[in-house]
Amino acid sequence: MIEAVGSKSGNKTAGTKRAAGNSESRLPQKRQKTKDIPEPAKQPEHPWAVDPDQVFRFTDLPGELRNRIYEVAAEWSYRWFPPTFLKPKKTRRGKSTSCDEDRTSGREPLPHLGLTQTCTLIRTEFRPLWLSTNRFPLYVLDGYFKAFFPAPLRASQTAAEVRTRIATYYNPAGNLRLWINKVSLADIDVLQLLKFSNRFPAYKFTVKAGLPVITPKTVASITALVENKNSTWIKHIKQHIITQVRIKINDPNDDDRLHVVIKESHAPKWAKSYLGLGHTRRRAKYWGASVGLGDAGWYLTVGVDYS
Asked: Quick check: 68 and 132 in contact, CB under 8 A?
């Protein structure tokens, strides 16, 4: 005798169901939901990293010891200051050439640059000393001056305390090494360098030849140009009468070229008209002598800015 499903019987098992073929299936049992137990917070692997008593405090050192550390860092920077290269030019596909990659792959960071960007105290003590260890080619000086010698802030824009503090970040009588490398042989505008020289008259510039092709004559010509203190020359630069000063270093057997561009309102008449190469060169030579460039050793030409 077969019992009907759902009939009362003493042998009935609760939660079961008779299926076809005398097979039985068991209903899943309900389980109580449990919340995820948060994992315990991990302890730091280095307890000293959060222990203020174990942190090395550089600024707590005596001033004499800090100065000695600065001197060692500056000496290292001066000796091992890395060379500077042009940024690789990307092709239309956005890839740089293998030659450029080889030239920039081994680029080294500027030594001890991070020490100049830690805090106001260390920056004031070490940054002026570090800047005198720098060595850069002519074609990066515009960006270098903007980064490390920004234009003075106006009194209406910044408080006097801030302007005084920023003025301690560099030495107005420091030293900058000018590294004349292969790229410096090209046509380069050095007007910003001359403006910097006028802004800091006591700053010293040391011209270093990076290639054998850079002769002592070229080094002397660049030095004379940067150190030119002729009053008329300085006035023309400060009043923006001169808009470009371009140098081009040629073959050692030829004179290095210096091309000065003057605003139309201040340019001499002979520079605005073509009177023959020989006549123009003689006039340019006389004009160069009047602004302190007579003995600089340049092949001088004068252009006119009509903008």
From this structure: no
